[in-house]
Amino acid sequence: MAIDLEALFPRIVDLLLDPVFVVDETGQIVFVSDACRSLLGYQPDELVGTRVLDHVHPEDRERTRAAAERIMRGGSHIDFENRYFRKDGGVVHILWSARWSEEHRVRIAVARDVSSLKRAENVRSALYRISEAAHAADSLPTLCGAIHRVIADLLPADKFYVALYDASGDTISWPYFADDRQLPRVPEPLDPGSAIANVISGGGALLARRGSESLEPGAVRASSDALGDWLGVPLVSGKDVMGVVVLENASQVEPYTDKHRDLLQFVSTQIAAAIERKQAQERLLHMANHDALTGLANRALFYDRLRMALHRARREAECLGLLYLDLDDLKTVNDSLGHQAGDRLLCELADRLVACTRASDTVARMGGDEFTILLAGLSDSSGIDVVIGKVRAALSAPLMLDGQEVSLSVSIGQALYPEDGELPDSLVRRADADMYEHKRRLRAG
């Protein structure tokens, strides 16, 4: 019995696991096999008559159009990859094998879903890049910026921020925030009604819908919708939530889905480890460069900044000022009220000195009751006099220690680059000598 292969052919095509597409020269789909249901979620008759480019991800349309033109000129493609939208809004990565039929004036193509392979490849790359960034980044904000770039290659990340949680004070801080909104630079109380609080308390990822465009990130309302434009995932350390990584998607083309949530949650383990590593490094670096009692720069950091400031002053033809301060009568406080009171006196002095200076200046504790202030970028010596006046005024207010009023008094010496020296040691010696001369005159009455 002869077999009518022509009649049997459509049934054979529909048995194939990979969908077969036939597209005419105008770009319209004229045939698609039943396997398109599992690939794109459409029934075949829903696709027939539509433009194939309408189903392609916007970022891939131009190169898809160029590939179609090459095929229509007689070329073939066996490894062209692009992204298509599913009926449910999801995105699928497709590897195509296609050729042109001149006789029928159509493109015949077979589509293979490589989303799982692509996702696995991207995740492996992301984990490696995050680990690499943890070693290379010089600060926590720099690390978070590198993580943002990695995540943006995995899923939509128009806005990205990291919120770190301090359980002891129930506060959150923002080491990184890629958005046009302004957030506090200091830790703030955690809003118990916010989506971030929901993620922290529940310890699970959250898809949410923003109630309005003006909503602050801490006030996003949770939603039970299957799709979302706000995605928050906890950063877990051991059994504790150390923070939240948040993505916001401004595009309605590709809303977040459970797959996005699961992907970010998987990668978040590496993100948390990288942030913890960087925090530990920064703590060790801070301990190595700062005074343990006052939190000021220590001698080593002071000299490092002095060398850099001198290099800039030479290059920019600027002045540089240096103050050397010695706290008067610390021994009297230690002897009468105890060393703990003396420590509080030193800390209060440090706070008042910092309040008298700019963010670009450096206040350092050189040891014991001796402090320095590095004033960079001065136009002339008058800048030193202004700071000395501020210091005198700030120290004029008395301090209460253990119920006793204690006066803050310092002897101050000064040096100016380049008049008093051009090297770090010569400037410090000059300011130190000037300070002791002031102290000598004070004692002489």
UniProtKB/TrEMBL annotation:
Domain of life of the source: Bacteria
UniProt xrefs under PROSITE patterns: GGDEF, PAS
CDD domains documented for this protein: GGDEF, PAS
Protein name in UniProt: Diguanylate cyclase
Residue ranges of domain GGDEF in the record: 318-445
Domain PAS positions: 5-75
Pfam families: GAF_2, GGDEF, PAS_3
InterPro entries given in the database record: Biofilm_reg_signaling, GAF, GAF-like_dom_sf, GGDEF_dom, Nucleotide_cyclase, PAS, PAS-like_dom_sf, PAS_fold_3
UniProt xrefs under Gene3D superfamilies: 3.30.450.40, 3.30.70.270, PAS domain
Species of origin: Wenzhouxiangella sediminis
